[in-house]
Each structure stands twice: as structure tokens, then as C-alpha cells.
Amino acid sequence: MTAHNTAKLHEIPEGADRRGLPAWTYRSAALFDLERRQLFLTHWQLAGHASDLPAVGDWLTFDLLGERAMVIRGRDGTLRAFHNLCRHRGARVVDGAQGQCKGALVCPFHGWVYNLDGTLRGAARPESFGAMDRADFGLKPIEMQIWHGFLFLRFAPGPQPDVAVWLAPFDADFRGYRTAGVLPVQVPDWSTTLPVNWKSVRDVDNEGYHVAMAHPALQDLYGRSYRDMTLPDGLSHSTAEFGDQPGRRWSVKHYVKLAPLQAWLPAHLQKAWNYYGLFPNTVIAFTPESVMFYQDIPLSAGQTRLTGRLYRHPQEDRAMRAARHLAYRIDRETSAEDQQLIVWSNESMASSAFEGFHLSDLEHGVRAHHDQLRQVLPVTRLEDAPPEGEMASLNEKLLKDAARSGLT
Fold first, then answer.
1. Got the DSSP string for 336-397?
2. Are residues 229 and 321 in the same domain?
């Protein structure tokens, strides 16, 4: 099935607004504060994989918009998530992206000691605190669910169901990829910070219309078969098959030549690259040799960090490793191309000449993402920016109006 024919399944209705979100939504500090409280902190965020924490005492951290999380493997082998915040003065209990502690967590500020299950073992100079029950001062837990090995965190209750229910449409493919058993790969830090609003990152990543023009390596590898599909509840799936042509570019030619057939994979995954989009800001991507996730972490209304992690299969042989390196090379080249497009797209939001997008049916993924945002934050439906000081109250009114009319 061609990308064009698949897009016909997702035609933007005749007469519908093809302009997308208005430009002000990419610049407003008040809207960004709403996004922080009512979108990012209340929706599932992907922090890593269980294989990142193989041993007792292993930990990793995940920071998001003023919240600091840590996941740690306890003595009983259980993974638990906590706020990375000492109950004494709020210092980070652990510092860095990930690491290992032996026996206990010791706050570097005043030396409070926590067990690996988050309970307080003891405070330094306990006599100086008077009557203090240690049971009341354990690390504060964060909601975490593990799905096919992936660690999902949520800082506050929100509208999304349990992860297994939400991601059920992807269950068969993830089971086919055996993601519960993948192992982390140490690669040079691919995190980068762009001077853009996070939605500009999603706008570029949520459609394949630009692949033919902007991504010569991907077009060479699989552009003829690439197709985007949108699903309910903010999910999307993009897929493409490779191997029907030998490839002209160096990385593509050698990848197609060297990539061994993975007979253990279901047939529809053996010669495909797949991307599974998770609202609001995460994609889990697969080649037959590797698994990665990437996400855009908003820092402010005009600054976003792009980051992610890479994994391999435990049975990796030399040919698989070579193919994985080539796939990663293609992906890094594609990411660099996308970053320039993201900056240009975001810059246009400040121009007096910008009158909104004019979306193709092939950009239905952008429209679907915007529609999901409009549902969570109906104030984004307004063409003109409301006063910054009235943003939150107006959004609350619109939510109540929609609930009364049955639109949500």
C-alpha cells in the first residue's frame, strides 16, 4: 500500500480548517504553564527500560518541568519510582542520569540515609529534630507502570488509562519484537537543546510528507513504502519496508546488504522500520536490529530538549551489530535534518506573514496531534490569543462548557 493510498483513509474533511494550531500557542508563557500542569505532568512519560537497571541499587533519573524523578531497583529486585527529593531540605538524593548505590541512598547535603525501598533509615544528628517518626519521612513515591520492559511515569493523576490498556493496539508488535528482553546500548549523548517550542518538534515528526524532499537517506531506504496511520487516544504508527532496492547512499547500500533476516521476528516486522507515537511527546522506534525511544522534553515556551535511549537484542551477532550501527548512522543524519526544519518552522510563528499551516491529507498526523491538544486544552481553539492572565480561567470555562455539551 502506498503512502498516498493510506492517506486516503485519513482525509481531512472537506471544508475543515487545515491551518492547525494558531501561532500564538507556540509563544504563550501562560499556555505553556497550562501545558505543564494539565498535559505533561498528568500524562505518561517514558523514563527508560528495566534493563537500564539490572542490579540491586541501580538507579536512573528523569526530570520534567520542575519535577525530579528517580527509579531504583530495591533489594527485593523490585523497581520503584520516587521524587528525587530529600525530605529534609529537598536536595537531590542522586545526581546524574544514572548510577549505582551500595546498600543505601545518602543525601549529599546533610547525610540523611534512605533504604533502597525509599524508607528513611535515619537522619544525621537525629536528636536535633525532637520527636520525629522516620516512617513519615520516606521518599515520596511516583506512579510507575512497566509495559514490555518500558518504564512509564506519571507525576499527577490524569486522563490516560493504565499503560497496558492505552497501548493495547501496539501489544502484538511489541511482543513480536520481544522488547521485555532488550539490552541498553551506550552511545554518544544524543541529547540536544533547540530554541523552539516543543510543538514544533512534534509538527515535523508527526508526518512523512517531507521524507521525499528532506530525508534523502530515508527516501533511498524505504520512502516508496512509507505510510502514516493515526489511532485513537493520541497514538500513531508509521511504518515502511526496505530491501526492494539496493540503495544508492553509502549507509543505505551497506545496511540493505548487511542486515541479516531476523527469522524470529513476525513476517511483517522482518524488513520494516516502525515508529509508534505516544501522545504527547514520545516515539518508540524499531528496526529489526534495534529499539530506541526519543522524546522532546519542554524546558520553556521557547526551549526544548531532544533526547532518548537505544537498545539491542540479547542474541546480537556481528552482522546484527553492523546493521545496527548503520541504522543508527542513518537515524542521526535524519535527526540533524529534522532539527533544521524544526527551527525554521518554529521561527515562522513569530512572523507577521504567517497565517497558519495549510495541511495536506498526508499531514493528517499533525492534524490529529493538534486535535488531541485542543481536547485537553480547548483554549488552543481560539484564533486570537487571550490575555495571558486569563488563560487558565478561560481554559477551565471552555472545559466545563465542553463537558456540559458532551464534546469531551
1. HHHHHHHHHHHHGGG-TT-------GGGHHHHHHHHHHHHH-GGGG-SSPPPGGGHHHHHHH
2. yes
